[in-house]
Amino acid sequence: MTALDAEGLRAATGIAEPYLRIENVWKAFGDFVALRDVSLDIERGEFICFLGPSGCGKTTLLRAVAGLDPQSRGTIRQGGRDISDMPASQRDYGIVFQSYALFPNLTIAKNIAFGLENTRRPRAEISARVDELLDLVGLPEQADKYPAQLSGGQQQRIALARAIAINPGLLLLDEPLSALDAKVRVHLRHEIKELQRKLGVTTIMVTHDQEEALSMADRIAVMNQGVIEQVGTPTEIYRHPATLFVADFIGETNRIETTHTGGAVRVGHAVLQTETHGLRDGQAVVMVVRPEDVLPHAVGYEAEMKPNQLPVDIADMEFLGSYWRAHLNNPEFANTPLVANFSINAVRRFGLASGTRMTVEIPPERLLVFPREGVA
Amino acid sequence: MTDAATLPPGRTTRLKLDRDGVIKRGLMLVIAAYLFAALALPLYAMLSKSFVTYSFDLTRYEFQVSDETGTIWSDPVSAADLNARLDLFDPDDLRTSTNGRLAVTGFFPEFSFRSPVKYRLRGTVADAPYLVGLDLQNSTEWREFDGNTFRRVNLRPVATAGLQNYRAYFTNPTLLSSIGNSVFIATVSTVLTVTAAFGFAYALNRSCMQFKGAFRLIAMMPILVPSLLPGIALIYLFGNQGLLKSLLMGQSIYGPLGIVIGSIFFTFPHALIIISTALSISDQRQYEAAESLRASKWRTFWTVTIPSARYGLISAAFVTFTLVITDFGLPKVIGGQYNVLAIDIYKQVIGQQNFEMGAVVSVVLLIPAVIAFAVDRIVQKKQVSLLSARSVPYQPRPNRRFDMAMLGWCSLVALFIVGIIGICQFAALVKFWPYDLSFSLRNYEFDRMDGGGWAAYFNSLRMAALTAVVGTVIVFTGAYVVEKIDGFRLGRAGFQFLAMLPMAIPGMVLGLAYIFFFNDPENPLNFVYGTMAILVISTVTHFYTVGHLTALTALKQIDAEFEPVASSLRAPFWRLFARVTVPVCLPSILDISIYLFVNAMTTVSAVVFLYSTHTALASVAVLNMDDAGDVAPAAAMGMMIFYTNAAARMLHAAASRGLLRRTQAWRLR
User: Fold this and answer.
1) Are residues A98 and A43 located together in one domain of the fold?
2) Chain B residues within an 8 Å CB radius of A30
3) Which residue range(s) make up the domain with A104?
């Protein structure tokens, strides 16, 4: 079947191809494999984050999509056309870098107009468009200043305006907020998301900051060592991590090594039921619990522990503003203290303090169990 | 690539070329072609020339002689047999150069052109060249000559490759002594210059002496004049009719003494810049630590100051050594009978037309220059890592006695520099040194002397302007190609090597290499020989490296992400280049052009082999007028170069400031 036929078939059946389709992409730098058989579909208008530690391949994947460092194997299709071997100048995207990369010797207005000037539009139209964009990013008065006269956050907004000036089909953001102060970062996060929603432009953002990814993305692709470990919405990724790596990388976790029997794991004498499926009896596993999923049940040890309840002692408590962090010891697994986040209300209600003996509960749907690698 | 081992089977994706890609590759090819034609190929031509020997190969020719009637012929006899039988030429006589000729009548002691005896000559192998008059023959057929024609027949040498030239060089005591001489004067000059420059730099950076600005300005003056100018001044002071000749107590200024003093003058600014940079980056905190440990000033100097400046000192020493050992102008003017390597090249080529031996001396001269270059590169790399962002710059504290001592030293050096230039100026303006010291401008009437006249000055001006413009374009584009074009890693590394190479090539060597390469009639580029173009090309190439490094530094400071951003905006790269890259680098571009201009005005070494009658240059005119005994006009021409360079420098400073104000407003917050 030729490409044209496939195209026709898709049109006839009404199944639209996703806007960006990354298929079996590999990338090697000499002996080092930076991307290993990566495939990903991105829908039109979607905001997707490539999230992972440094060296995981997220920037490599973005640069392949941008045509700056082509993939070694595999295809990339954008808007129905194969762009795998197209040079950057023939692709359809705008890009924003961590360094802003604003042209220092051009005014803000000329920076934004840089891409518009190739389109042979009349001067008046260009300047109207520049004004419109300056309004859009909330910096209407800055047209005649030079980049060095603006703050980092303002410069990044100008870089964004420059990137979207030519109405690209795809917006690529390469760690756009990493160089900014914490406060500005949170503020700009929100603004970029708003802008993206308003324009409806398909957006890929690369970041190593999980909070940024969770708060901005429609979907997150978590990457590790050249592969995508999981793709999903922020809540899916957080609530139902597919792998131990994802569970570890996103949010905080308690990890306890144990074994699995009949839909439950044992910690000391306590039996903890889990909803994780597909595990064999006697399999070596890692049990993962987030600190906020360790719930205070009662002060003192319960006489009769129900399933998913644990007796603990509070070894130490830290006040962290909106909540308390407690380090819990259990006489039966003394070498693995459990970290729990207790709300201020709960601490007040139960009267918790260092040294308190108490019972905590871990609900089965909050207890994640992963097979231990390298152990049968 | 080892893709196959780590990737699934298949073809590695390569991006299609867009218009930008085509233009960038085109640019790369142009610059690479330039560096090849202007540097690599000439050097290769020279190197291979040094292994070529020319000699008459007598086994390749046979003669026949007739009787008086011209009808009965003798048996054919080879020239070699004839020579062996009659013992005519010994092997030394048969060694010659490209232009060698051997009259065949020499083989026939009884030859008379009036006799009716006829002669026949033929080659026994295909390559047996001989001349009949000016016609080159090369044939294995017999040719017959009457006596009158036969005396115009000459054998021509054939080329053989081998080490004979080197053997000849290293068994010739006169030539060999030049190596010792060169190393001797370079070593002595280096020690003295580096010491003097260190004192001066120390005063500028570590004391609270007054008039630092003026001293800085004066110290840079020698850069503006040809290296042979101090030679002329020294002749006026200490020469046969010198004012201060008695001070030398019978020593002659012509020879090592003059060369060393002159070398200190012209290498001083180069050493000073390097040492001053090294001293300016020292860390105040180290001195505070030394003081708190109660170390004496003397001990602090040897344990803190010298070690932190050591790379600068080593680098300055090697740069000075290279400048002196490769310099040609100064020993030519004031060297007298004292032979050095650079002079030998000149004498072999211009005097004896022995190009092959010139090439051998060039190769010998390359050795110290290449070593110095390599050491300098290694040291420069280390120097950079000494700098740390957290260093606190040293703040000197006033100390009356120390500051006065420093002022004294700097005044002495300044007096020396100003004195040398002042003497030249004075000599250029007086009627007839030392007998009639009244002023006149007669020495500036260059058209009345040999050497090229005013035309030479204007040629120089044109050459320097062209070098500045063309050179800056080539150098900056070349640096852009190395720094900003992706892909071709191997190609760019080779490119970078070629760009660094000129630093290690002495001007004389480059000039000689150009003769071999461009004067070859079979070279399609032969047409530039003897034109202004070859002078510009040789000068751009000779001074390529410093400009290249300046441009590279400027380009490295530009965000690497400008190119991706521009291509995502679908703006062609040349628009980015013209609107952003060049404007941002403008200060450096101006620096490169003034550097090329000043050096083009003063250079002698490369162009002395390449100028023709209608492209004579001012700097070469200084040399030639001095050679012809017109020393005062030579000084006057040298001063013309000085005025021009000083004016160009001022113009450059003004232009830089103006441009900075107009186009670099973005630098100010």
Assistant:
1) yes
2) 1-2
3) 18-248
